[in-house]
Design brief:
Mediator_Med30_met; mainly alpha; transcription regulation; transcription coregulator activity; about 180 residues; nucleus
């Protein structure tokens, strides 16, 4: 890597190609890296907030009790510094949030049902994915669910018919037993 020139380029002159690449790389930050930075920022915010509450808990109220002005000023300075840092961290978090939204603006939202594998309620076994079959599309999945629903309805109807036949046979056998 070469060192940048000491003299800035003239106004009419375009920046060197290496500088253009560096600025382009600085702009194209990975969204996952931004999310990690945002997570670390949130952790810093929580840490600073806990420190603020710790300082507030340790501060004594000026209720007529003699207190040390130097200690009070020191704690007040620390508190103000924590509040300033908290403000900076919130601004940083806002910038990260805006940049993530900007990076994800062109993406189509994908429903979570397609991203997360789930177990169906009917306990059906999943197809063998190692057999070379690709994942089902949402339309195919919907069709399969419809067919399963119709199959359950038909099974329920068959069960009712079988129960009615069983009751009829029971009654016929009871009548025959009474006759003999």
């Amino acid at each position: 890597m070469t060192t940048p020139p000491l003299v800035p380029p003239f106004v009419g002159q375009p920046p060197p190609p290496q500088q253009q690449q560096q600025t382009q790389a600085a702009r194209d930050v990975n969204t996952s890296s931004l999310c990690r930075i945002g997570q670390e920022t949130v952790q810093d915010i929580v840490l600073r907030t806990m420190e603020i509450f710790q300082l507030l808990r340790n501060m004594q109220l000026p209720n007529g009790v003699t207190y040390h002005p130097n200690t009070h000023q020191d704690r007040l300075g620390k508190l103000q510094e924590h509040l300033r840092m908290l403000s900076v961290l919130f601004r940083k978090l806002r910038l990260v949030y805006d940049k993530c939204n900007e990076n994800c603006a062109g993406l189509d939202p994908i429903p979570p049902e397609q991203l997360i594998p789930f177990v169906e309620d009917d306990g059906s076994k999943h197809e063998d994915r190692s057999g070379g079959q690709s994942h089902l599309t949402s339309e195919e999945r919907r069709e399969i669910l419809e067919v399963n629903k119709k199959l359950k309805q038909k099974n329920q109807q068959l069960k009712q018919v079988m129960d009615q036949l069983r009751n009829l046979i029971w009654e016929i056998n009871s009548m025959l037993a009474v006759r003999s």
